[in-house]
């Protein structure tokens, strides 16, 4: 008996807790209902009476030792477990909601306005060929009007490829691929080779509008733009059209809205004129219709193009264009929208 007790004692003192479930294995092996120590108690029955007391005390001591070791082992494993876990994945997080970019808010608002009057949304590529960005829009080769927009060329020469300088290129794509009536707006990013400053950037965003059908007149253009201006800037907003020039529209006009900041009383934003320029427009030149395969004798239409940054500038009174692309969280955080 004494020998057996000694054997388990040795086993106990040389036991190594290795795996994370070692404590439980140890408990089952030594202290479980069929464990080694329990087994000793049952052997006690056969021990001669004069040795019973001695053996019983030794087994009790052994059991106590095993229990202490078990406690220690349990503490150790729970310590290493908490040390090992870097983060409590069940902890509720501090969620910080992002906000829409001001240009996205404006773009969606403008799209919604034109949707109300039946315009669809179309898009085109930012890398364009000469045909869609210039030639089909009535810019003859070497025409000085090409200099109106400083172009970033990707490939020069016969098959000229460039970053589109305006969303008017999408007009051409839409006209080539559909038949009138056409009523579409095309939002997108455009590029111009300009030095970056508060008032100019090498990329910005435009929204193009195109309406082609039988009998579309300049009055339709004017009314559409008035509706747009009043939806976006308020129902008291007035518009005025000044004659202008674009190769792809004839006649062409530049459109101003009554100053939203000073209510036309005169301020430094409208340079004391009471008016703010917001877009270019005109009746689609018959040459442009024909270049895209539309019968200019049957159909007429209007087009317009506006800068999204310009509209955002007026709505949010943010004058430095660079703010829109720097992605400074302190700037972006100020725009909250449900759109
Ligand atoms: N594409 C012109 C620009 O970028 C704007 C415009 C569009 C003018 C459509 C007339 C008609 O300046």
What does this structure look like?
The protein is α+β, with helices and mostly antiparallel strands and 339 residues long. The chain has two domains: 2-80, no CATH class; 102-338, Bira Bifunctional Protein, Domain 2 (BirA Bifunctional Protein, domain 2, 2-Layer Sandwich), CATH 3.30.930. Helices cover 40% and strands 20% of the residues. Strands 1-5-6-10-9-8-7 form a seven-stranded mixed sheet, sandwiched between helices. It has a three-stranded antiparallel sheet with strand order 2-4-3. Strand 3 (153-155) and strand 4 (161-163) form a beta hairpin. Helix 5 (102-116) crosses helix 10 (308-316). The termini are far apart. The mean pLDDT is 89. Phenylalanine is lined by residues 166, 168, 208, 246, 249, 280-282, 303-305.
Please report the first level of CATH classification, the CATH class of the largest domain: Alpha Beta
Structure ligands: phenylalanine
Number of extended strands: 10
pLDDT < 50 stretches: none
Euclidean distance between termini CA atoms: 84 Å
Quick check: average pLDDT? 89
Number of helices: 12
Determine the strand fraction and express it as a percent band. 15-25%
Strand pairing plus helix content: what structural class?
A: alpha+beta
One letter per element, helices H and strands E, the order comes to HHHHHEEHEEHEEHEEEHEHHH
Range of helix content: 25-40%
| Sheet with the most strands: spatial strand order | 1-5-6-10-9-8-7
CATH architecture of the largest domain: 2-Layer Sandwich
What is the gyration radius calculated from CA atoms?
40 Å
């Amino acid at each position: 008996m004494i020998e057996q007790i000694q054997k388990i004692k040795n086993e106990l003192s040389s036991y190594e807790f290795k795996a994370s479930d070692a404590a439980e294995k140890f408990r089952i092996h030594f202290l479980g209902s069929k464990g080694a120590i329990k087994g000793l108690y049952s052997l006690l029955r056969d021990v001669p009476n004069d040795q019973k007391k001695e053996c019983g005390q030794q087994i009790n001591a052994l059991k106590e030792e095993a229990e202490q070791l078990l406690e220690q082992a349990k503490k150790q494993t729970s310590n290493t477990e908490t040390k090992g876990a870097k983060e409590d994945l069940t902890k509720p997080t501090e969620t910080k909601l992002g906000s829409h970019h001001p240009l996205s808010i404006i773009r969606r608002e403008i799209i919604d306005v034109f949707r109300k009057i039946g315009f669809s949304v179309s898009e085109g590529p930012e890398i364009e060929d000469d045909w869609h960005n210039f030639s089909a829009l009535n810019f003859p080769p070497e025409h000085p009007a090409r200099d109106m927009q400083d172009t970033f060329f990707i490939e020069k020469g016969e098959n000229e490829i460039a970053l589109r300088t305006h969303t008017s290129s999408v007009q051409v794509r839409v006209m080539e691929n559909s038949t009138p009536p056409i009523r579409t707006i095309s939002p997108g990013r455009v590029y111009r080779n300009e030095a970056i400053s508060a008032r100019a950037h090498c990329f910005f965003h435009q929204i193009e509008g195109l309406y082609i059908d039988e009998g579309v007149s300049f009055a339709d253009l004017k009314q559409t733009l008035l509706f747009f201006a009043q939806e976006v800037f308020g129902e008291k907003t007035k518009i005025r059209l000044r004659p202008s020039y674009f190769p792809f529209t004839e006649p062409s006009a530049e459109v101003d809205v009554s100053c939203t900041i000073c209510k036309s009383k005169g301020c430094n934003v409208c340079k004391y004129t009471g008016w703010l320029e917001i877009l270019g427009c005109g009746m689609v030149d018959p040459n442009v219709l024909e270049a895209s395969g539309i019968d200019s004798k049957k159909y007429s239409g209007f087009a317009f193009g506006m800068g999204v940054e310009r509209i955002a500038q007026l709505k949010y009174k943010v004058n430095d264009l660079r703010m829109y692309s720097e992605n400074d969280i302190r700037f972006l955080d100020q725009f909250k929208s449900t759109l």
